[in-house]
């Protein structure tokens, strides 16, 4: 145990996700040896992040204003809507530079074991958007795991009767750079059923 | 390094660090095992989707200091794929795995009967031939029998007098005769007792010949009985979709003052109507 504020700093850092006691100690001593100007910048950012960051009133993405940068951008294709679980998934899709539509962030996935049902996610907001906006295609981009697949199933059931709406799901299959013999049955099965002509 | 191998069902998966997961399995010979799957969240992981919830796998572990580590996995049955394709089956499977997790408190304690029950129930849900609601209630009843809490159906729970009886009391542990009937007891139709008996003993022709109203009543009683004995609410049960409206018996149990203890939720849990408000809005 260290004295006073140094131990407090280690304890606080240790509460962050993925930071164990050793890592917390290493970061704390790194901060003690850092230039005061760098510490000042970190303090400023930490102060601003609580006050300055909010969620976009349209899509639910993190934003510094009422509407996020993507929802404000008039060059975006308003007929395409990509539904994702978390704000970090927006960034992942944006990095592909393949998608020019807009997003809807659900805020998680359906997970009864953690007490998350449809009412805990932004599903009502999605329906409201589909009723108010001219959306022709909803792309479901939830995670390809059990909870994400169940969320996609629920969304398909919810949206299939929407008039004039096309509902699609991200393709899933074999990752590039892998070996076929190590592919699990579920992934390989998906890759086979989703095969396409060349 | 001590290695062992066992078949098991994945009950839960928790994120750990950057790319790992802690997997909770119910195994055939070692009971409940919590083990680390390293790098499983990476797209290039050799485990792939094998360690997703509801997966029935053959795994190799090595014994760690606190948690064991999974080194190899092969799929025995890929239950997850058909189950997640139907939201009703997914919610029922979630309730099954949560109940199995709750009923096995001690890790490493063999629970072969419960393991067979869980794999049987998940197989029935994956095959899709039976009503998921009936499969779930049959699992609950048999899992309670495994735990020693099977409700008395054909005899009085208090004095043991042979039935058939007309009253059912969750707090007393099942059917009650006229003399032993307690204040909070409900009076379901005779078909409810027949369905309870059929589900407990796997008499599917009888179970599947019942009406939706009788199934609703049974679901309410079974959910109340399970949660009374677990002494805690199952988190997944309020999300389980049933095919029709809430059971009138469930309302009786929730409103007669006998099941209002917050630690012992009433039978209304787990009787959610299929087709929730979002669907209604959408159509």
From TrEMBL, chain A:
Q: Which residues cross the membrane?
A: none
Q: Where are the zinc fingers (C4-type)?
A: 56-71
Gene Ontology terms, MF aspect: DNA binding; zinc ion binding
GO biological process terms, alphabetically, are: DNA recombination; DNA repair
Q: What keyword terms does UniProt attach to this protein? A: DNA damage, DNA recombination, DNA repair, Metal-binding, Zinc, Zinc-finger
Q: Which InterPro entries match?
A: DNA_Rcmb_RecR, Hlx-hairpin-Hlx_DNA-bd_motif, Rcmb_RecR, Rcmb_RecR_Znf, TOPRIM_dom, TOPRIM_RecR
Q: PROSITE patterns annotated for this entry?
A: RECR, TOPRIM
Q: Start and end of every Toprim domain?
A: 79-175
Q: What is the purpose of this protein?
A: May play a role in DNA repair. It seems to be involved in an RecBC-independent recombinational process of DNA repair. It may act with RecF and RecO.
Q: What family does this belong to?
A: Belongs to the RecR family.
Q: What is this protein called?
A: Recombination protein RecR
Q: Which organism is it from?
A: Prauserella shujinwangii
Name the gene: recR
From TrEMBL, chain B:
DNA replication/recombination mediator RecO N-terminal domain mapped to chain residues: 1-79
Q: Where are the residues of the annotated region Disordered?
A: 246-283
Q: Which UniProt keywords apply?
A: DNA damage, DNA recombination, DNA repair
Q: Which residues cross the membrane?
A: none
From which residue to which does the signal peptide run?
none
Q: Does the keyword Amino-acid biosynthesis apply?
A: no
**Alphabetized InterPro entries for the sequence:** ARFGAP/RecO, DNA_rep/recomb_RecO_N, NA-bd_OB-fold, RecO, RecO_C
Example GO biological process term? double-strand break repair
An example GO CC term for this entry is:
bacterial nucleoid
Top-rank lineage group of the source organism? Bacteria
Q: Does the keyword RNA-binding apply?
A: no
Entries under Pfam families matching the protein: RecO_C (PF02565), RecO_N (PF11967)
Q: What family does the database annotate? A: Belongs to the RecO family.
Q: What does this protein do?
A: Involved in DNA repair and RecF pathway recombination.
Q: What is this protein called?
A: DNA repair protein RecO
Organism of derivation: Prauserella shujinwangii
Q: Which gene encodes it?
A: recO
């Amino acid at each position: 145990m260290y004295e006073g504020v140094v131990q407090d700093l280690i304890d606080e850092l240790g509460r962050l996700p993925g930071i164990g006691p050793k890592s917390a100690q290493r970061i704390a001593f790194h901060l003690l040896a850092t230039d005061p100007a760098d510490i000042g910048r970190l303090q400023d950012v930490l102060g601003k992040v609580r006050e300055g960051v909010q969620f976009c009133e349209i899509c639910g993405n993190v934003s510094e204003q009422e509407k996020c940068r993507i929802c404000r951008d008039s060059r975006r294709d308003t007929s395409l809507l990509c539904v994702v679980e978390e704000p970090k998934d927006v960034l992942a899709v944006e990095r592909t530079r393949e998608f020019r539509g807009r997003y809807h962030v659900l805020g998680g996935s359906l997970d009864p074991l953690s007490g998350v049902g449809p009412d805990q996610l932004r599903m009502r907001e999605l329906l409201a958007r589909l009723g108010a906006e001219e959306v022709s295609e909803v792309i479901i981009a939830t995670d390809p795991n059990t909870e994400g697949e169940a969320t996609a199933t629920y969304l398909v059931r919810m949206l299939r009767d929407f008039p004039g709406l096309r509902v699609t799901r991200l393709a899933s299959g074999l990752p590039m750079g892998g070996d076929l013999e190590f592919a699990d049955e579920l992934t390989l099965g998906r890759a086979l059923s989703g095969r396409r002509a060349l | 390094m001590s290695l062992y191998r066992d078949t098991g069902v994945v009950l839960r998966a928790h994120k750990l660090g950057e790319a790992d997961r802690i997997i909770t399995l119910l195994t055939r010979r070692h009971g409940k095992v919590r083990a680390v799957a390293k790098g499983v969240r990476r797209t290039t992981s050799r485990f792939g989707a094998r360690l997703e919830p509801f997966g029935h796998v053959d795994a190799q572990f090595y014994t760690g200091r606190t948690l064991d580590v999974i080194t190899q996995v092969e799929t025995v049955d890929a239950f997850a794929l058909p189950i997640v394709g139907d939201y009703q089956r997914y919610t029922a499977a979630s309730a099954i795995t949560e109940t199995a997790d709750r009923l096995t408190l001690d890790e490493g304690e063999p629970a072969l009967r419960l393991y067979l029950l869980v794999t049987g129930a998940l197989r029935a849900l994956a095959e899709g031939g039976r009503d998921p609601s009936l499969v779930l209630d049959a699992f609950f009843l048999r899992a309670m029998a495994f735990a020693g809490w099977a409700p008395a159906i054909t005899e009085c729970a208090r004095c043991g007098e042979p039935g058939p009886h007309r009253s059912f009391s969750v707090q007393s542990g099942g059917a009650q005769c006229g003399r032993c009937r307690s204040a909070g007891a409900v009076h379901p139709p005779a078909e409810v007792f027949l369905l309870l008996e059929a589900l407990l003993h796997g008499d599917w022709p009888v179970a599947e010949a019942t009406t939706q109203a009788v199934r609703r009543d049974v679901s309410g009683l079974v959910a109340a009985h399970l949660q009374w004995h677990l002494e805690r609410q199952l988190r997944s049960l309020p999300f389980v979709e049933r095919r029709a409206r809430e059971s009138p018996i469930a309302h009786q149990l929730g409103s007669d003052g006998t099941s209002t203890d917050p630690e012992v939720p009433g039978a209304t849990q787990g009787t959610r109507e299929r087709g929730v408000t979002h669907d209604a809005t959408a159509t």
